[in-house]
Amino acid sequence: MGLVSRLFRGNKKLEACQVDNAAHITLGAQGEDVAKIQFALFSLDALKIDRTELVTQTYGPSTAAAVLSYKTKRQIINKSYQTTPDGIVGKMTITSLDAEMRARQLSFPGLGDCALTPPSVPQPFVRSLLNGPPRTVATFLGQVGDRNSKQSGGEKLKQLNRSLRIFLAITKRASLEDGFPSLSADLERAKDSLFEHGLTLSVEFRNGFADTIDFAGTAGRIILEDDIVGLRKASEDLRPGLANILRVIVCPMNDFVFGETFRNRRVGNLFFPPFVLMNSRQTDRSNATLLHEMIHAAFVPINGSKLNHDSEPHSIFFENGTTRLGAVNRTFLKPEHAAILAKGYFAV
Prior knowledge:
The protein contains 13 helices and 8 strands. With 348 residues, it is of the alpha/beta class. The chain folds into 2 domains: 12-106, PGBD-like superfamily/PGBD (Muramoyl-pentapeptide Carboxypeptidase, domain 1); 113-342, 3-Layer(aba) Sandwich (Collagenase (Catalytic Domain)). The strands form 2 sheets. Strands 1, 2, 3, 4, 5 and 8 form a 6-stranded mixed beta sheet that branches. Strands 6-7 form a two-stranded antiparallel ribbon. The longest helix has 16 residues, at 91-106. It is elongated.
């Protein structure tokens, strides 16, 4: 029959487990196949597994207990030789997990914030942020007068006096490929742009990648939505909590995207605040991806509202980055976007 869920299909050990009694997954096993089983158990039943087993991808006692709980709830018993469930993943168990993960996969939300936003549409200001009537970006540009971060009349920009807390991680796969050589430039772009608005960037734990996540998947759009949620869960297993810090994870993504912000993602009983994935395979010459995605993550939708990208090519919040030499650079952080950042869940 074959495994059909995106989480399991293509994994040779799990595919063998479905057809061969000798390939059952048992106590002491270790590897990607175990990690996928652990993720499915948490996703479906919020079953608790020891953090050490999660990080090391080991089929230890708590994983076996979770498997037993899953099988007991569904009465998965091979009645040819059993009267009660056991803690082993065999043919019936992997087939059941696969079917339920396939059903869960079909209920996933759509793309991230960048993909959902229509290009080149003037966005209204958020009234509550700027305490004035709604205005379009085009109107605002006329009032600003230039792109040197001065308002009309030569006044300085409003100083927002907030610190934005972020946490940087990278997958082992991305680290082994090329890493993310432009990280320093992205951080400097963000710090320089924020400084003019009285905002500071605080990179928690250390000024670089604090964690390397041993995650086998390739995070991307739609076709690998399981991996997006799985990667976020893997980061949580490695470093739990951090509710008021924006997680930014560098990983291989589809080659046409620089970065993406994901919200409304949950797994098991965990609901994740907005988080950012940055593509290790694609670097924006403007080095604006980090700050661009921070704006997405800070925005709080009201009554289903969406934050449209800016129509001004020089804006940090313009939709398209570029790898082409000589193209227009995204270098200008507008006050309305700075105000959104200052209200983000990761601002203190």
